[in-house]
Structure formats: structure tokens, C-alpha cells
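Work through this protein:
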Amino acid sequence: MTITSPHALLHPVDAAGARWSSGFWGAVQERTFASTVPTIWASLSDEAVSPGLRNFRIAAGLDDGEHEGPPFMDGDFYKWLEAAIAQLEVTADPALAERIEELATLIASVQRDDGYLHTPVLIQALHAEQAVALADRFNFETYNLGHLITMGVRHHAVTGSTTLLDVARRAASFLEMLATDKPLELARSAICPSHYMAVIELYRATDDPQYLELAEAFLRVRDDFDGGDDNQDRLPVREQKVAAGHAVRANYLYAGLADLVAENGDEELLNVLEGLWNDVVDTKLYVTGGCGALYDGASPDGSPWQGDISRVHQAYGRSFQLPNTTAHNESCANIGMILWSERMLSLTGDARYADVIEQISYNSLLASISLDGGAYFYTNPLRQVRDLPFPLRRPGDTALHPTPTPPPSDERLRERYLSCFCCPPNIARTLARFHERAASVSPDGVFVHQYGGSELALGDGILSLREDSDYPWNERITFTVTGASDGGLPIHLRIPGWSSDATLAVNGQAQAVSEPGSYTRVEREWVVGDVITLTLPMPVRVLRGHRLAEEITNQVAVRRGPVVYALESTDLPEGVMLEQAALRRGASFEVSTEEVAGVSVTMLATQLAVLPDSQEDALYADIEDAALRSVPVRLIPYFTWGNRGASEMSVWLPVVW
């Protein structure tokens, strides 16, 4: 299936047209299907670990008990199902297919006739308790229904079954009733608004205009609501100039609005989204692609609820407000930025959006999951230190209720199961569907966005390509034409914005290459066996921050290709502490291939300067006038940190001359 939204320049393809068959992303996909999807199911289906499955069984009258877990657990269950459906699309698995159908029947059995489905309320009703839908905006009903609809659409696309598509239609009918009869309740409850994206997906699957009209109604309802920055509803969307408030909610909202633009061609709304996206990328995005810097931050521009104002959780702060140790960067926010960026890419064809998807994917996204594919971060800091004198939320804490007794700050490791379980299945579905981000098609040919071992088969044999590469570790990327008819299609290869001096050859003959941050168009009469070689030199780059990013003043970060590197205390010589490590200006780096927790990666060996060790705990102390010695260390890819036990870590290092 290829989505052909009328106002999008590029159209994504599904697993029939693009998949990861080898290389870096092929290995990640294999790990996702072998480890991530089944281990999440093992947690959700084990009532000693998670109430995820049991809540549905209780709601269906199959088990006795009360609802347990956070109110958004239903949505997290749907996200896991979406990941499992994606696995089924890529790899035939009769046992998995049978389980999915059983769960589809279970979910359908508990849905109310009016389309409402929220197990906490349904279980209350079974117990003859007063059960009121949308009683509290933090019950996350629209979030749950949005993920239900998205999963139901995907289930139909992959299996052909209408079981969950019918569930999705009924859920959308409930949302339509709210938009018509209870707009205030809908607006108040539009938390983490996955339902914007969901009803557009339903519209695309059914071609039923009522769902497009419903998406437009969502926008009208939220613009009529006098809310706050916490949920991006203090101002009408078209008046928003900067991204503010809860980062997951912001990114989900703007992704959904981009979907709407793809269908109705609203140029004014597109301009607003471009401005907001630029605000994030130019002033609020971490070098790792992390989003939502602040654990808790007051609204930067006020709220009408000044008498009863609450903090904005995991918030976008002011421009260049990018702390490192206390960086929140919830995994769902980073995924939300991928969702938003890929939709902007489809609308505009601008390679900058694909660059940001790459930046997030190789860094903050992969850092959020362990190298064995079975443990997860909720937050993704850029620095982790020992003996922090205040508590930070550990990975397993609920988003709303942080633990009063967190572990030592240098022992905040990934966890197999998180009591706030929104991130693991979101990571799973993102990685399980990552093949959809490899390439797009348009009337002008195929656009290759991401490198890492893809196979593309487009237009019923018009053009097929196989990528062979060791990207992102190696600069050479080769595409071989494995199928072509009628001359094939023009091919557009992304030249990453981080690159310089890229070269391109077809069958050994040099071709012109466009500027970094663009697509190079290659057109000819393709025949089977043609070889395209793209070379993206990968010198080690040492980056500085903006002058207003105070926490990284006089510090630098190291990047090679799209991969950001970090120093982990595991690799420091004995007696050298993290706070003593500094990078000399002009330092050289030796590239080597080594293993972290059994996974082969590219490391960077260099010499670090050792700053004097302060023996005092004074807030301020005299600087020692002593020569700085040097020690050898290795820098590791940021996404691999925390896989070798408790450690300190930093992406940014002081720079000395």
C-alpha cells in the first residue's frame, strides 16, 4: 500500500515496497522481532508483571478484579499490538498471527455500543460503580482511542480482517459524538493527542470523508478551548510561534496537523507547522535529537489559570534551555518528533526533515533501548553523574508520581518493565515499522531517505534496488539495480546535512552531487546490474554549542557521520573522574571497530586532558595552576551507553588548549 495524500509531495511505502534486509537497520529489525516484541508481550501478558492484558480480560468478564496500572495502559497495549502487526507484515509467523486475532476478538468484545473503550471505566461499570467517561483529563481516553484506531487500521491493512477496523470506526464515531455534542469535554481530554493522526489514517484506509471532517473538527474544538501551554491550547494553533509545554503532546499534535494538511492542503497551517518545527530544531533540540528538556517547567508565557497553575511536565523550555544532567527527553517525545518530521518530509520533500529523523534515530531513539532489545529508558539525559544531591526520575517511575527514594544517580539503568509503560511499546512500534522511513515515491521517482541495508521494490517491477553498506560506520553506500522495466524511475539520494565532499558514481562514472541537506537526482535508463555508489566521508567532527546554550559553554561534543559519541566512566583510566575529563582542541581520533555488550560498533580512541581534581565540596574554589596530563580513552556511540553496568557518562566535554 502506498499512501497518496493529494497535498503531499512524497508518499511513503509499506513493507511490500521497502524493507531492511541487511546492514545496520536489518540487524535492529531482527533484534526487534526476536527480542523486543516478544519480551514486551511476556510482560503485558504476565499479571505478576503488568496488568496490561488482565485489564482487558476483566473488562470482558473473563477474570475478576479491579483495574490496575496507569489510565493510559490501554493505549500502551495497542502500541504493542501495532508493533506485532508490523512484525507480521514483514515476517510470516502463524503463532503470532493467531495471538493477534485472539486479542483483536478480545478488544472488540469489550467495546461499548457507542464506540467508547477505556478499561478503567468499563471495569467500574461491571462492578456497578459510578463510571463516567472523560471525568478527568488525565484519564487519557482520547490518547487510548487514538492508538486503538491507528492499530485497527494497520491490522486491516496487513491481515485484511475487519475486526479491528470496525472497532476503529466505532471509536471514531464516539469521538465524533464528543466533537459535536461535548466539545468542551473533548478539548479538555485531548491529552497526548494521538487521535488526530488516527482519524486521518482511518480516512486514508476507508476514503470516508467523515473522518477528514472529524480531524478538522478536532482543530476547531481545541482552538475554541481556553487552556494552557501544558497541552498547547492556550493559543489557537495558527497564532503559535514557538513550541511550548509538554513535548510529547506538542509533537503528537503537530504531527496530526501535518497529516491534516496533507489531505486538505491548508497552506496557512503548513506555514505555522514549519515555523514551530524550525523553533524546535534551531533552538530546543539536543545534539542527540532529544526533545523536551525540562522535567518540570512553568509555562514560559503565562496561562489564564493563574489562580490554579500547575507545572508543565517534561516540557519544552525557553530557546537554548538545554540542561544535560537533568535533560528529560522522554523517549515518546523523541518518537513524536520522528512522526512530525516524517510528515513534514512528505509535505515538502525537504531533506532537512530526513536529516532530523536520522539524528534522532541513531542517537536518542536507539539509546532508549538496550543493545539486547529488552530494557528501556524513559528519560534520555546527555550526562549522568554520581552523588547527585537531588532526585531525578528513574526509568521505571510513573510520569505523574516520581519515586521518593530513587537509586543513586549513577545507577539509573534501563529497566525491563517500567510502571509508566508508554515508552517501551512506542519504541517497539517505531523500530518495527522503521522500514517505512527508508524511502518514499513521488511522480518524480523514488526518494531514498535513510541508509542502513534496505531493499526497495517499487511500482510492480518498475524499479528494484538493493543497498549494501556498513552505514553509519562506513562511508561507502552501494545500490544495485535488481529489477527495472521501461527504464525504471529517477532515483533521489539524500546527501545528509552533516556531510561534506560527498561523491557519487554510476557504474564507476562520476556524477554531480547536490549540496548537503538535499537530494541528488540520478536519472537514466536503468537496467539490472547497474551500480550506484554514494560515498559520504565521515571525518570526526568536534561541535560547539550556541552562545546562549549556557550549560555547554566552552564544551564540545564529538560526532562522526550521524552518530554522536559519549565518554563513559567505564572507559576512564583508574583514578580519573568524569568531571576531570577534557578534550584538547585539535585532538586526533583513531577509528576502530570494537564490541559493547557483544555488539560491534565504531569507537573513537583519543587522548583526554585531565583537569585538576578538586578535593573540596565548596561551591566555588580557586583553580589550580598545574600542568595538565593526558590519558588515552575511547569514546563510544551515545546509544550504547549504560549497557555495561552502572556508570557516569557525558556527551559534552570541556575543551582546553
About this structure: Residues 442 and 558 are 36 Å apart (CA to CA).
